[in-house]
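Continuing the series of single-chain predictions for the mutant panel. This is the parent chain; the variants come on the following pages.
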Amino acid sequence: MNASVLSSTLLAGCLAVLGIQGCRSPQVDFTYHQLHPLAQAQPGSHSTLAVEVLPVRLPGMLRRPQVVLPGPTVADSHRWANGLEQDVQRVLVENLALLLSSDFVVAYPSGDQLKGVWRIQLDVEQWDGQPAGFMDFRATWMIQKAGDGAPSIIRKSRLREPLKDASPAATVAAQDRILLALAKELAVELNNPN
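Parent structure:
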């Protein structure tokens, strides 16, 4: 192979590599978020109340890996570490276990292992807000004793929390507070079932 052909081949190869590099999407760094339980343990009390939190249903807008900010705006570089549906279920379990002082509050499908378990079904209809305003939450929830035909309790919750700003951190913090308020409503009903 002569020098002219070799240098043309090398030049074409270098241009191809540079072209491929130029077509690649820029590297995006993701920030991952998760919800946190805020309930405090009830000192000196212990319950054997058995509760199972079923999978949570969220509006379509919230069933995505990205955090949905007030507006609504999808924060592409801010993601849920576990998925919002699973995180809501996990935090409800943890908040209720603390509020009820029970070691027998579990996520579905672990309730099959417990006797006399109360099952909670949560259907979230609204969970959004306005920047530097409020986050609004509306949901229907049911509590049913395992093995019973009809739900024992059906309620609607309408909750509102202030939003400091439209940042992902402020959004997640408001969601944490809403889940605590919801867990308190559920705990009142579970402590006094009909």
